[in-house]
Fold this protein.
Amino acid sequence: MLERSPLATTILFHVGPVPVTRPVVTTWAIIAVLTAASWLGTRRMRMRAGTWQVCLEIVVETIAKQIREVIERDPAPFIPLLGTLFIYIVFANLSVVLPGVEAPTSHIETTAALAIVVYLAVHGYGIAMRGLKGYLAGYLKPSWFMLPLNVISEFTRTFSLMVRLFGNIMSHEFVIGIVAVLAGLLLPVPFLALAILIGIVQAYIFTVLATVFIGAAVGSIEGG
Amino acid sequence: MTIQMISIIAAAIAVSFGAIGPALAEGRSVAAAMEAIARQPESVGPLSRTLFVGLAMIETMAIYCLVIALLLLYANPFLG
């Protein structure tokens, strides 16, 4: 397995001139599962909720509470984006425990797309909530000579968001591969259990960092 | 020494020395968080969230070194 580069992606088939890679197909499967689960849970919403609806409500309310604690204002405008990011990354990271499935987040293209979404959302929310002028004035704080550093940090933090998720998930998959080559029977099991922990922690960290960046852009907290 | 040999040595150096700084920093931050939790057990929620985010920031340095090592091993620009 070590001959295959961790930076290369497997192309499964072509749709016209567009190559469709393995992470894309896994992502489609995750999207289908999540959409089906949400549709089943919210198909007939009632006040006296069924089991499935209660589970979804608990997830949404927990995410809302966490976001409120970080950005200290009403989380309603931010839940759709941040909640989707968190749930998708959790499922993507955990898909590695299914036999024969690679986590889509262990390829840099997926995490790059997620980081670009966060980068655009930061500016979008900032301009929507503070107006263009107020948002641009935020770059001159705490002092005008911090302007170059503030602009550079926009790009470096997006880059580090991308590399952090990719590096953690990919390197752990790599470790599992090496362990499976050395001793294939039972030894990979604790490493797979560790992969579950790492996957959830990294999804949490990605979402918290995105929340902090958005919170800084809308001006409710100091940015990191 | 061929470019392959130099790349392998450079990758090992990048990972080994790149792990020292983040390891020390993570140890210090976890120790400080432990001390703070021991003093004020009720503040464990915000403390652990800040700790996780800080650890992620520190860990990124080690991940950068890992990415450099993997680039040297698998996507070396000098091997043509």
About this structure: The CA atoms of residues 7 and 76 of chain B lie 8 Å apart. The interface with chain A takes residues 45-46, 49, 52-53, 56-57, 59-60, 63-64, 66-67, 70-71, 74-75 of chain B (CB under 8 Å).
